[in-house]
Amino acid sequence: MAGPESANNACASGALLPMLTLGIPGSGGAAVLLGVFIMYGIQPGPLLFQNNPDLVWGLINSMYVGNVMLLVLNLPLVGLFVRLLHVPRGILFPIVLAISVLGVYGARADVAELYLLLAFGLPGYVLNKLDIPPGPLILGVVLGGPLEQSFRQSMKLSGGSLGIFVSTPLAAILSALATVAIIAPYLRGLRAHRPRPARAE
After folding, report:
1. Which pLDDT band, with edges at 50, 70 and 90, does 198 fall under?
2. How many other β-carbons are positioned within 10 Å of the β-carbon of residue 15?
3. CA distance 48 to 34
4. Rounded Cα distance, 150 and 156, in Å
5. 5, 123, 126, 192 — which has fewest CB within 10 A?
């Protein structure tokens, strides 16, 4: 249990590196954090360390504080956490749902927040059952507006020609990489479902 959990914590911290340095989130949590940065007008990327050093180092220091708090809490409470694994799901899930509803309603005492919880909770449940990761959806919601605006600007500059995306070597390389990134999962899926030839006896 300690090994997988340590790997999980390391993965969560490592996913922030490409988000901070390149603006590319490495996980769903990093995508949410990227959306928060963009909402507040903070552009992740190579200049983030120069323009907002207090934010970056504050985030890094918060990771150290969080790990220390995990150590302080987990050592005396590990026995309780193990016992929670034996609670039947029929009892545990309603308790978690009740705590979530109370937390959402208690934040602003607004019933509309509960409808918002329901509106996002049901699609999230369906996506979870279909094994659809939330990261791309979050990125689409956060970056959809700026992406459309940049696309319209490119079309105005080129007079409506899509050739602007391959007009320079750098633009052509980036367009090719984006195309490969979109097509590659489908090609892997087709390759996995391809019937294998029978072995000769």
Report:
1. low
2. 19
3. 12
4. 10
5. 192
- Residue 46 pLDDT level (bands cut at 50, 70, 90): confident
Q: How many CB atoms within 10 Å of residue 25? A: 23
- Token code pair at residue 179: 């195309």
Mean pLDDT throughout 113-141?
Answer: 80
Instruction: Name the one residue in this structure whose structure tokens are 């769903």.
Output: 28
DSSP states along 164-193: GGGSSHHHHHHHHHHHHHHHHHHHHHHHHH
Q: What is the 3-state secondary structure (H, E, C) of 1-67?
A: CHHHHHHHHHHHHHCHHHHHHHCCCCCHHHHHHHHHHHHCCCCCCCCHHHHCHHHHHHHHHHHHHHH
**Cα atoms in the 13 Å half-sphere on the side-chain side of 74:** 10
Classify burial at 171, counting beta carbons within 10 Å of its beta carbon; exposed 0-12, middle 13-18, buried 19 or more.
middle
* pLDDT tens string 52-87: 888 888 888 888 888 888 888 878 887 887 787 788
Prediction pTM value: 0.52
Distance CA 102, CA 120 (A): 16
pLDDT digits (tens, 9 = 90+) for 122-133: 888 888 888 877
Distance from CA of residue 99 to its chain's centroid? 24
Rounded CA separation 128/119 (Å) = 15
